[in-house]
Amino acid sequence: MKKILSTIFIGIMALSYAQIVIGDAIGTATIKTSVLLEFAANQNKGLILPYVRTIPATPTEGTLVLDATNATAARIRYYNGSWIDLSGQDADLTSALAAQPTTAQVTEPATPGAIIGAATSTADGVLVLESTTKSLVLPIVEDIQNIPSPSPGMIVYINKAGAKRLAVYNGSKWSFWKQ
Description:
Layout: H1 2-15, E1 20-22, E2 35-39, E3 47-48, E4 51-52, E5 64-67, E6 75-79, E7 83-85, H2 94-98, E8 114-116, E9 127-129, E10 135-136, E11 140-141, E12 154-158, E13 165-169, E14 174-177
Parallel strand pairs: 1-2, 2-10, 4-5, 8-9, 11-12
Antiparallel strand pairs: 3-12, 5-6, 6-7, 12-13, 13-14
C-alpha cells in the first residue's frame, strides 16, 4: 500500500512540475527554485543507481548506472558522449545480482519511468529529471562510515568539514571525488 501511495504522490508531484523532497518536509537546499529532487540531510542513506546487465546503446548524456555487464568487474559509469568509469575499481556483484530481477522476470514499459520536471521526456530512464534550470541534490551524509549497509550502486554527497566530496559505492569499495 505504501508503494502505491508513494507512486501516486510522486506522479502527482511530477505532473505539477514541483520540487520533491524525500526524507523530510524541508530538505537541504537553501534556494528551492533551483532544485527538482532533493533528500533530507544526515539520514545515512543514499540514492541507488540502476544495475544494468547490458549498457544502453544510445543513452542520454548525464546517465548514471552500475554497469554489471561483467558481474565480477562491476563499475559505476557516467555517460557524457562516451562512458566514463567513476569507480576506478572492480566489484564482484555475483550475489547481489542474484537478488535483482532479469529482463525475463520483468517487462519494462516502452516509455521512461518517473519523470520529474516535465510532462514528457525523450530520455530513457527509470527516473528522469527534466529541466534546464533545476537540479538533483544528492543525499547528504556526514561520513560513509555512518551508513550501516551500503548497497551496490549507492551515491551520496559527504558534507564533512575538510572532506566535502561525492562518493559512489560499486558493491565492494567506495570511490571519492572532491574539489
